[in-house]
Amino acid sequence: MAEIMRNDMEKVKELSPEVFDFLGDPARCGIATPEGRIDITDTCYAIVSAYTTASRDAKEYESHRKYIDVQMLIDGREYIEVAPIGSLEVTQDYSAEKDVLFYANGHRGDDLLLEPGKPVILMPEDGHMPGVACSAPMAVKKVVVKIPV
Fold first, then answer.
1. What pLDDT was estimated at residue 10?
2. 82 - beta bridge partners?
């Protein structure tokens, strides 16, 4: 599995200075940012969503082939579980249209705590299970930035 980069805004800046600027600008990526898609460059975009975290049993792993994910909470706390895709069991074939492949949650990966303003960078080989409740379900607001591989 690739090294998961946590809380590393400098690595984000290396991947894309425009994404770095976007994530650091509360006027563009803050609590008042509406849900939906935001184009950052011609090739990079963000998806802002609000949801309630859930127990691990209710979640599944996913991975992407065309994009690197930079996930960062705007509000709340959650765990994201990460495992190498080679250790996961595919449950739904790859959708090129949505750039997503789903896996069973039977494998236990590494738990990463996401908190506001601290991004995690997930590469295509990193299966990830976002939205896992820390101790009890919680409302969160998150931005996921897609950077082409």
1. 84
2. 110, 128
